[in-house]
Amino acid sequence: MPALVDDIRVIREENPFESMMWRFDHAANLLNLDPDLYKVLRVPNREITVYIPVFMDDGHIEVFTGYRVQHNFARGPAKGGIRYAPDVTLDEVRALAAWMTWKCAVVNIPFGGAKGGIICDPAQMSQIELERLTRRYTAELIDFIGPERDVPAPDMNTNEQTMAWIMDTYSMHARQTVTAVVTGKPIDLSGSRGRREATGRGLLFVIDEAVKKLGMHPASTRVVVQGAGNVGSTAARLMHETGYKIVAMSDIHGGIYNDKGLDVPDLLNYQRIHRSFEKYPQAEPVSNMELLELDCEVLLPAATENQITSHNANRIKCKILAEGANGPTTAAADDILEQKGVFVIPDILANAGGVTCSYFEWVQDRMGYFWKEELVNERLQDIMVASFHDVCKYAESHNVNNRIAAYMLAIDRVAYITRVRGIYA
Ligand code: NAD
């Protein structure tokens, strides 16, 4: 593990693990965290690397590298998504695993944190290759995951189908159907109603609270969304329905902008047909980097890490930064945003709707009794709104920004449980 640093210029800005540790150290310091507990909480519990041989469709074998980092179990089973991408690294998975621990603690649900990733390019793989990859990865992790151990979920480039394959593989080994081993499953396979939209809906709930707090109104609130996957497109659609003015959206190929507001359902329909926003007639093209610097009230990055850095933070014009993605802002950009007076809803709060609804799915699977969508959404709203106000109160009473407040609140909760449980020797 890298040693404690006290100068932000020393950390590699775009290494998400170092960004996460910088904020952790800062928050732990402000909390006066006991030095022994500090040592325990600043390292993951377990890091697993697996090499996954897969028969490709043309008959040759490819060996993929996969990770599962289980960061913390103090508050309950570890919980966190699995991502498939060519640029997955162990440091990225470590950061994402730690963020899951802090996120579950911020929204006060009984889970620790974990994350998984496989270095692969899903766009170049057939469905059957992806299925073989997923099943073998699951088999390699069979002793480490389970409803009471570690419960994976979807993340970038994985989806309900991936979760169904994991659930089936795990169940074959267990010789019984174990639905609660993963969340984010299809509804007919013991998934939860509302899970698919939960991260975007959670964003809407916390943005609504921030807008009220700052005395703004949805109709005059211009929103820019980066990323049009599960999180970005759901948030944009729900915010459009609520009366917000979505002025720009993008995906990995680029974005589009219309200062009069976009017809979001029409735009998403266009993207579904054309697989890109390019040439959408009712808007101007804009690059992903230009999009972040547009004049707006709410900026909602919902794509990937390291989008707002020390290089562009000065040019960000939003009043509210609602982090749909994990780690879209580097630690080096935090101070710049604070000096500019941007109201940040940090990722470990803003996008916690997904894991909160995953918690509901896990509860429903274990009960074998499934809730109506209205009940899911109502309970999600209760948790997101209460957590938003917990973080704001913490920020105000400790005179720190929202991000550090969220870290302090989370570390405090995990440290308390760790102290009460004690260290097993
Ligand atoms: P997704 O794969 O469904 O969509 C990702 C979107 O981002 C796509 O539109 C893609 O084209 C776009 N994109 C990727 N790289 C980009 C880049 N460099 N610039 C601009 N756009 C880019 O993924 P998702 O599930 O929507 O997740 C998005 C982010 O939200 C990730 O950081 C993920 O960890 C986080 N997150 C997801 C959930 C969830 O429930 N899905 C929950 C919490 C956090």
Could you give a quick summary of the protein structure above?
It is built from 14 helices and twelve strands. Helix 3 crosses helix 14 and helix 13 crosses helix 14. The protein is an alpha/beta fold and 425 residues long.
Task: For this entry, give a set of tags.
425 residues, alpha/beta, Rossmann fold, 7-stranded mixed β-sheet, 5-stranded mixed β-sheet, 45% helix, binds nicotinamide-adenine-dinucleotide
Topology:
Elements: H1 16-30, H2 35-41, E1 46-55, E2 61-72, E3 78-85, H3 90-106, E4 113-119, H4 127-140, E5 150-154, H5 160-174, H6 195-213, E6 222-226, H7 230-242, E7 245-251, E8 254-257, H8 264-274, E9 284-286, H9 288-292, E10 298-301, E11 320-322, H10 331-339, E12 343-345, H11 347-350, H12 353-367, H13 373-398, H14 402-421
Parallel strand pairs: 3-4, 3-5, 6-7, 6-10, 10-11, 11-12
Antiparallel strand pairs: 1-2, 2-4, 7-8, 8-9
Helix pairs in contact: 1-3, 1-14, 3-14, 4-5, 6-7, 6-12, 6-13, 12-13, 13-14
Residues 154-157, 199, 226-232, 250-252, 288, 302-304, 324-326, 351, 354 line the site of nicotinamide-adenine-dinucleotide (NAD).
